[in-house]
Amino acid sequence: MIRFEHQNLLYSKDLRTAIEPARLKDYTEAVLNAHAEIQADRRADILGFYDLPQKDIFPITDFMSKIDPKFDTMLVLGIGGSALGNKALYNALKTERNLPRKVYVYDNVDPIFLHEILREINLETTLVNVITKSGTTAETMAGYMIMADLLQRRFPNDYHQRMIITTDREKGFLRQVIKDEGYPSFIVPDNVGGRFSVLTDVGLVSSAFAGIDIDGLLQGAGEMAELCAEADLMHNPAYLNGLLHYLYMREGKNISVMMPYANALYDMADWYRQLWAESLGKRRDVKGREIFVGQTPVKALGTTDQHSQVQLYTEGPYDKVFTFLSVDNFDTDFIIPNLHPEREEVSYLGGKPLSKLLNAERKATEIALTQAGRPNCNIIFPRLDEPSIGAFIMMYEIQTVFTGKLLHINPLDQPGVEAGKIATYQLMGKKGYN
Q1: Which end of the chain is more exposed for a tag (fewer CB within 10 A), N or C?
Q2: How far apart are CA 194 and CA 412, in angstroms?
């Protein structure tokens, strides 16, 4: 199970601006109210992501057992919640788990980007997975039409075996396409919003294809959901982290930096950015009052960004709270050779694992930030495996909804995104959007 080290979010002689532990007790009633609202939403079947650990994965595993073994690559067409989770899961586990198949994600309608993907993959051995609940997402549908046309022209006899579609269970344009063309299909559930959908078919299909143990992902998510079932802050890491971030928002720390000390987790920070920004960045509260709340999520990479951003983080404005992601044990490692034992400039590195240097750098950044009075915390992965990744996803999904309840906003909608979609339809000449 992952561990949440939160001590550097609380007051100490270095963190003079941090939260006093006694303040947490002042919010006991707010925590209980938020918890009650979450339970009510669950009973109303609004927060379906809580129940995903019990998901029946047989339709996915059965499909994977029957696909032609020649397929060694999947190209995912999606955007936002239909893309970020796929990338995060694949890149978190591809090396440590030695995944046998590749996953590409086309999530930006940049023609050069698509050209580069098509130049790298072999269409003969590639499955295309189109993911959009509505079937009207402009970016995804543009990719779908390009790839469907390409497959139909290149493989006229079996193109329908080279594309799968993940969409609404019953309705929408793509559901009709599935009926007409006979494409295999999977489901985006009604009670799980896009940015919370990584542990549905949206993220599990590409993961299973790649060779990720999706049962292990759900097992880890289930263990975290059980850990976060009660409103006891000291035994519920999602609620504790959510409350602390909420309190820092109230103190003007409106930037949340997530800094993985593992390249494999860098895209997990991307997934977090959408989850946190789209869920909490709201103009109005649930009563319609203008409040303009939210915390801007920023991603950084240790150790790379120690040499590009940490100067700002330690000596710049007091407007940030920091989260490190670190890994205890790497299955892949190197021992640094002691090539120059006579030179003190480098001999201290000789004979030590590269991972020890990485984690020492993380600890050093934590010390520097703490001494500078900058609040920070650490999410520790025992190793990069499916249960740990699943637990992290569930923790942050619960934390996000809980924080939304503290802010008295709807963490499940995205009216600002919808405005941009409508403007795109207008600019592209869609009928009815003059």
Answers
A1: C
A2: 9
Which residues, listed in sequence order, are joined to residue 73 by a DSSP beta bridge? 102, 126
Largest Cα span, the chain? 76
Residue 6 annotated to the active site? no
Q: What is the mean pLDDT of residues 374-393?
A: 98
Whether the CB-CB separation of 302 and 365 falls below 8 Å is answered with: yes
66, 70, 287, 307: which is the annotated catalytic residue?
307
CA nearest to 10, candidates 233, 298, 317: 233
Q: What CATH number should be reported for the domain whose range is 3-41+217-412?
A: 3.40.50.10490
Catalytic residue, candidates 139, 278, 386, 397: 278
User: Where do you find CATH 3.40.50.10490 in the chain?
Assistant: 3-41+217-412, 48-212
Q: Is 421 a catalytic residue?
A: yes
Q: Does residue 48 contact residue 195 with C-beta atoms inside 8 Å?
A: no
- Catalytic residue among 102, 160, 352, 421, which? 421
Query: What's the predicted TM-score (pTM) here?
Result: 0.96
Strands (DSSP E) found in 369-424: 376-383
Provide the 10 A C-beta neighbour count for residue 347: 13
Report whether 35 contacts 398 (CB < 8 A). Answer: no
The topology (CATH level 3) of 48-212 is: Rossmann fold (3.40.50)
- What DSSP string runs through 300-337? --TTGGGGTTHHHHHHS-S-EEEEEEEEEE-SS--BPP
User: Are the C-beta atoms of residues 40 and 172 closer than 8 Å to each other?
Assistant: no
Break the chain down into helix, strand, coil percent, rounded to 5: 50, 15, 30
Please confirm, yes or no, whether 307 is among the known catalytic residues: yes
For the stretch 221-242, pLDDT in tens is 999 999 999 999 999 999 999 9
